[in-house]
Design goal:
Shape: globular
Radius of gyration: 22 Å
Distance between the termini: 44 Å
Number of strands: 0
Oligomer: single chain
Number of domains: 1
Helix content: over 70%
Strand content: under 5%
Length: 465
C-alpha cells in the first residue's frame, strides 16, 4: 500500500503539473497524500518534512535565483540581449538559420541570462528568419530549446546556470568540474541536435512544407536598428564569466570565514567554505554583471524604468525559487516514507560499470522527469544519495568532479517532458502547441539523455575529467 501511495502521488503530481496547475500548491497536497497512506500524521509531515527541506533549499539558492532573474530582466529590457541575438542571427544568415538560433541561445545562456529570458529575446528574430527562409515554424521551439536548454545550461564547464551550481554544495566542486567531459558532452549535443533539426528541415522541404500560416504570437514587422550593438551587449556577459572564473579558480578564499557563524550555533550554516564558494562567486559575479548592464543600458529605459525592471526581475525570481523549493520539499516527504526504501535500494544498487555514475545518471534523470524540473529533480536526488555516491566514488579513487558533471548533465535530460514549465512557456511564446512542436523538443531530450551515458563511457575508458 505504501509503494502504491508513492506511485499514485507521483502520477498525480505529473498530471496536475502537465495540466498547468502550480506545483507550489499541489506538491504539498500530493506529498501529504503519500504520507497519509503511509500512516504518517499530516501536520508534522508538512511542517517538519516538507517545509524544512524547502526552507533549506531557499536559504542556499535564493540569491542565485534572485540575481539571475534580475540580470536577465535588465538584459531583456535594455535590449542588450536582443542586440546580441540579432547580430548572431543576421551574421550567419538564412542559409544557416537553425544554427544561428541555436548559437544565439547558447551565447546568452552561457553568459548567465535566464533561459526563460533567452526565449523571449530570441523568438522575434528567429521567427522572422524562419519566415524569410520558409522553414516550418514548428521546428522553431526545438531550435530554441537546443540553444537554451541543453549544452550551455549544464554541460559546458563554467556555465553560471543553477543546474551547474547545485552539485557544488554536495561534492565540494566548482562550476568548472570535469571540463573535458563537459565540453565533449556539450559539443556532442550541439552537433547531434543541429543534425537532427537540419534533417527535419530538409524532409519538410522535400514534401513542399514551408513556414505555414500562423497568426498566434506572430511578431510584428519592425525595425531593430535602435538595438544596442552586439559588442555592447556582450560586456555584461563577459563580466559575469570573467569574475566568476577569477573567484572560482584564482582567488583564495579564507577557509576560516565561517568559523564565527558556526560558533554562534546558527541553523543551516554550511559545514565548510568550499561548499559555498561557488555560490558566493556567482553572487558577486551577477551583481557586477547587473551593474555593468544597468550602466550600459539605462538610457534605453523609460522614466522610472529601472525600478520597474529591477522589481519585475525580483518578483519573477520568487515563482522560480518557490516552484523548485516545493518540488524539493515534496521529494523530502517521499524519501522519508517507509515504502521508499525499496525504490531507494533499487536506484543506489545500479552497479553497471562498477562506479556510481550510471546509478547517478538514472536517478537524476528519473526524478527530473517526474518533477518536470532539472534543478528540482537533481536537488531531490542529491539530497537522497549524494553522500552514498561520494563514498562509493572515494572507495574506488574516482574524482567528485565527474559526479558533479554527470549529475548536472543528467538533470537536463528527461526534465523536458511535456509538463516541464520551460517547455510550456516556450510553446506559448512561439504560439504553437505540443502537437505541433513537441516531437523535436523530445528529440533534444533523447539526445541529451543518451549523451550523459556517452560521457560516462568516455570517462570509464579514459579516466579523463
Amino acid at each position: 500500500m505504501q509503494e502504491i501511495g508513492i506511485i499514485l502521488s507521483l502520477f498525480l503530481l505529473m498530471f496536475f503539473a502537465y495540466r498547468g496547475f502550480s506545483v507550489i500548491l499541489f506538491a504539498p497536497v500530493f506529498a501529504l497524500l503519500a504520507a497519509s497512506l503511509s500512516g504518517l500524521p499530516l501536520m508534522p509531515a508538512y511542517t517538519e518534512l516538507f517545509m524544512a527541506k524547502g526552507v533549506t533549499y531557499i536559504k542556499t539558492y535564493f540569491p542565485v535565483f534572485l540575481l539571475g532573474a534580475v540580470f536577465g530582466k535588465v538584459m531583456e529590457d535594455t535590449g542588450l540581449a536582443k542586440g546580441i541575438s540579432r547580430w548572431i542571427i543576421n551574421s550567419l544568415g538564412r542559409e544557416r538559420s537553425i544554427l544561428s538560433i541555436v548559437l544565439a541561445g547558447g551565447v546568452l545562456t552561457y553568459g548567465g541570462v535566464s533561459l526563460f529570458v533567452v526565449v523571449f529575446a530570441i523568438y522575434p528574430f528567429a521567427s522572422a528568419l524562419f519566415k524569410e527562409a520558409d522553414i516550418p515554424k514548428r521546428l522553431l521551439p526545438g531550435a530554441i530549446a537546443l540553444g537554451a536548454f541543453t549544452f550551455t545550461m549544464d554541460s559546458f564547464p563554467g556555465t553560471p546556470q543553477i543546474q551547474n551550481i547545485i552539485p557544488t554544495s554536495y561534492f565540494g566542486t566548482t562550476v568548472y568540474a570535469a571540463p573535458v567531459s563537459g565540453l565533449l558532452g556539450g559539443l556532442t549535443i550541439l552537433v547531434l541536435g543541429v543534425t537532427w533539426l537540419e534533417y527535419r528541415r530538409k524532409a519538410a522541404i522535400t514534401v513542399g512544407e514551408g513556414y505555414g500560416n500562423h497568426t498566434l504570437n506572430e511578431p510584428e514587422k519592425s525595425s531593430s536598428d535602435d538595438l544596442p550593438a552586439w559588442y555592447i551587449g556582450v560586456l555584461p556577459l563577459l563580466t559575469v564569466l570573467v569574475i566568476n572564473f577569477f573567484l572560482n579558480n584564482m582567488f583564495t578564499w579564507n577557509p576560516n570565514l565561517l568559523q564565527p557563524f558556526q560558533a554562534m550555533n546558527l541553523p543551516l550554516v554550511a559545514a565548510s567554505v568550499k561548499n559555498v564558494t561557488s555560490n558566493w562567486s556567482l553572487i558577486i559575479a551577477l551583481v557586477c554583471g547587473i551593474v555593468v548592464a544597468v550602466a550600459l543600458g539605462i538610457g534605453r529605459l523609460p522614466t522610472n524604468g529601472l525600478a520597474k525592471t529591477l522589481n519585475a526581475g525580483a518578483i519573477g525570481s520568487l515563482l522560480a525559487i518557490m516552484n523548485t523549493a516545493s518540488e524539493v520539499g515534496y521529494g523530502n516527504v517521499i524519501s522519508s516514507l517507509p515504502g521508499f526504501k525499496a525504490i531507494s535500494a533499487a536506484l543506489i544498487n545500479i552497479k553497471i560499470g562498477g562506479s556510481p555514475l550510471v546509478s547517478e545518471a538514472v536517478t537524476v534523470n528519473i526524478l527530473a522527469g517526474i518533477t518536470g524540473s532539472a534543478s528540482g529533480g537533481m536537488s531531490i536526488a542529491l539530497d537522497l544519495f549524494a553522500k552514498d555516491w561520494l563514498t562509493w566514488a572515494n572507495s574506488i579513487g574516482m574524482s567528485p568532479q565527474i559526479l558533479h558533471r554527470v549529475a548536472s548533465m543528467a538533470s537536463g535530460g528527461m526534465d523536458t517532458l511535456p509538463h516541464n514549465g520551460a517547455v510550456i512557456t516556450l510553446l506559448a511564446v512561439c504560439g504553437l502547441t505540443h502537437r505541433d512542436s513537441y516531437p523535436d523538443i523530445f528529440a533534444m531530450t533523447v539526445i541529451k539523455t543518451l549523451t550523459v551515458f556517452l560521457v560516462i563511457l568516455f570517462h570509464s575508458i579514459t579516466g579523463v575529467l
